[in-house]
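Need residues for this backbone.
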């Protein structure tokens, strides 16, 4: 069947369609209800169906005779380590670690926070939680103690799992000081921490609270999988919202497993046994879905890469991994290839390797710019597929479907809707817009299986953040348009979220930090265009009257505060003092205009602006301080 026929069926006969897709995974009890609605009127898929995600990812494959196939290839150029685990070996480790969690009192429904680097034990930890029906929440290692504390208070975990350190290109990042500070700051107290001691750095453990990973593993017996309901939560993943408080995206077990299994075939065109590599981090949704769950549920071999596209040791490292493990599909963010292109624009390092195993490149996290698309296509001679998704969806919503029928690629477009997603471009009143007219990207409800059913303990915020803007639709927060051939173009966020090197960050959160400096009266953080990272944040601060501080000193202090409160991942490197900020007459700061000024884009100032002359002041300031795309010779 062609894409368009399947797509139509997925919308017009959606329950039957999703019933058939559910048959592609192994249930303990096949769901009688395909779609139902909960007490809040929110759609739930497969209620009453019984399954276990860890069983699907491991035991099932061993039962099917795939036990000796490699499940995980761990490749860590930052620590010079390479290791492989078969499905049987991984199952063994996960069953034992499930025993450890059980011993520490973790039961079905309890939360476990995982603050760990890109090592196999992190995958073991996630799957062990899933095995018990416990809900994991992975926190990305680039976040600071304060961010971890916010998540501890919201998720209220029984146990925290961590490692002695993370490893960036040339620095070791001890984790225990971050863990200690977060536990100190949080109101909620965890019962225990389990610490994996890495060879590169040994942490000092706290008696009475911390357990050494290896010691407790060696004294524990294995635990089998627990049946859970399809609608039981598998994990919470916090993501940036438009306020200072991150949103706890909930993923359920049933819809997620169905989405993971099917997208591996539809979107990525893979079969069991293929080598699949998502070069991301398990702290992000891409890592949850396409480093861990989807490739394992589909019976692929997944690559767990602890390194960067460059400097580990050079810009040829991606090609080395593809060659060494015969990777079929590589998925990463465009920024990774911009980094490689910058260091090896002629692709000389690529020539050292045989990348003929590679069939497709998939990109997400931000729009793929045409220069990167052209460079990559020329270098690799394989389809380079831009696809669009969010933490909320857990899998691609727009993509060219390599496993169904790969259509012509239009650079700059994330192609067409994936099955089950009825994506529309709406005007402010919720009317569908004609082709080539930019508007808000929204999805007709119900969202298909795998998408967030709710926010953790916050139905009110869920409804207000996503469902209140357009009746009957989920609002994505992105703007875009669709062309006459049905190809969608995502043009960027229309709220105050920015994407820095494929990482989603909230400017509101950074503003909260800047505003807490004693000299700052008001501030605005805007994301401005950056050649490598796509966007970077810049802070504009107005000082309280009468305060005296050297601007360079203030900038250093603000940078340090953002590092300490949010983390280095924010890449907050610039703060400038402004006499005033552009505002509407009602006092709303015009952040979008500041961004346009910094990007050198033309725009029509809104008639509601309080005073036009402030725009020239900001322009002069940007020039003087060499902020923005035109002034990148800094
Ligand atoms: N733990 C601790 N610190 C971390 C970290 C982690 N897991 N990840 C990043 N950081 C730190 C970095 O060390 C850096 O710190 P610094 O300011 O002291 O140098 C800072 O956070 C910013 O990191 P990053 O955004 O990774 O920038 P970079 O300059 O080190 O590297 C790229 C730039 C483009 C090479 C890198 O961002 C990259 O590989 N991106 C790939 C995109 C990706 O994986 N996206 C995920 C979604 S698909
Ligand atoms: P995250 O939740 O971290 O995955 O970030 C989701 C956001 O990243 C989306 O709302 C978009 O703004 C952006 N994004 C992801 N993929 C793409 C893409 N292919 N094209 C344009 N923007 C994208």
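Answer:
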């Amino acid at each position: 069947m062609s894409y368009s026929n399947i797509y139509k069926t997925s919308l017009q006969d959606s329950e039957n369609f999703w019933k058939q897709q559910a048959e592609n995974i192994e249930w303990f009890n096949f769901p009688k209800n395909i779609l139902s609605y909960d007490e809040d009127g929110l759609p739930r898929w497969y209620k009453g169906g019984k399954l276990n995600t860890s069983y699907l990812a491991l035991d099932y494959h061993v039962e099917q005779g795939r036990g000796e196939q490699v499940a995980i290839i761990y490749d860590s150029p930052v620590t010079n380590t390479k290791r492989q685990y078969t499905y049987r070996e991984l199952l063994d480790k996960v069953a034992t670690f499930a025993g450890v969690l059980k011993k520490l009192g973790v039961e079905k429904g309890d939360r476990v926070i995982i603050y760990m680097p890109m090592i196999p034990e992190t995958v073991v930890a996630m799957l062990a939680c899933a095995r018990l029906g416990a809900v994991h929440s992975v926190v990305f290692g680039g976040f600071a103690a304060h961010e971890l504390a916010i998540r501890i208070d919201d998720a209220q975990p029984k146990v925290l799992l961590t490692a002695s350190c993370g490893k960036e290109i040339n620095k070791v990042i001890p984790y225990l000081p971050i863990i200690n500070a977060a536990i100190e700051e949080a109101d909620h107290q965890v019962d225990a921490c389990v610490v994996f001691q890495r060879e590169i750095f040994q942490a000092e453990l706290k008696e009475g609270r911390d357990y050494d990973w290896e010691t407790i593993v060696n004294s524990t017996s294995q635990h089998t999988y627990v049946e859970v309901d399809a609608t039981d939560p598998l994990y919470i993943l916090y993501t940036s919202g438009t306020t200072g408080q991150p949103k706890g995206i909930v993923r359920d077990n049933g819809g997620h497993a169905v989405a993971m299994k099917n997208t591996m075939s539809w979107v990525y065109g893979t079969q069991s046994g293929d080598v699949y590599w998502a070069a991301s981090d398990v702290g992000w949704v891409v890592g949850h879905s396409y480093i861990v769950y989807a490739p394992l549920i589909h019976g692929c071999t997944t690559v767990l890469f602890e390194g960067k596209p460059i400097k580990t040791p050079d810009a040829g490292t991606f090609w080395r991994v593809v060659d060494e493990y015969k990777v079929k599909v590589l998925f990463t963010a465009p920024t990774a290839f911009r980094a490689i292109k910058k260091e090896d624009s002629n692709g000389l390092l690529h020539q050292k390797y045989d990348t003929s195993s590679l069939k497709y490149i998939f990109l997400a996290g931000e729009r793929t710019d045409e220069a990167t698309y052209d460079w990559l296509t020329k270098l690799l001679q394989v389809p380079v597929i831009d696809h669009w998704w969010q933490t909320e969806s857990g899998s691609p919503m727009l993509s060219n479907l390599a496993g169904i029928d790969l259509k012509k690629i239009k650079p700059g477009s994330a192609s067409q809707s994936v099955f089950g997603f009825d994506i529309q471009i709406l005007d402010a009143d919720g009317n569908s817009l004609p082709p080539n007219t930019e508007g808000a990207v929204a999805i007709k409800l119900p969202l298909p299986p795998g998408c967030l059913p709710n926010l953790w303990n916050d139905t009110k915020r869920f409804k207000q953040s996503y469902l209140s803007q357009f009746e009957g639709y989920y609002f994505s927060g992105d703007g875009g348009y669709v062309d006459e051939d049905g190809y969608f173009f995502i043009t960027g966020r229309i709220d105050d979220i920015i994407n820095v090197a494929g990482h989603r960050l909230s400017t509101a959160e950074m503003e909260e930090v800047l505003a807490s400096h004693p000299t700052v009266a008001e501030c605005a953080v805007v994301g401005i265009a950056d050649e490598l990272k796509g966007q970077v944040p810049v802070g504009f601060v107005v000082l309280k009257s009468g305060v005296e501080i050297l601007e360079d000193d203030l900038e250093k202090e603000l940078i340090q505060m953002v590092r300490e409160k949010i983390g280095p991942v924010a890449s907050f490197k610039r703060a400038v003092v402004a006499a005033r900020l552009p505002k509407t007459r009602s006092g709303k700061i015009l952040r979008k205009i500041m961004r346009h000024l910094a990007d050198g884009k033309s725009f029509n100032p809104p008639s509601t602006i309080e005073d036009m002359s402030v725009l020239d002041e900001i322009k002069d300031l940007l020039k003087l301080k060499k902020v923005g795309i035109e002034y990148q010779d800094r």
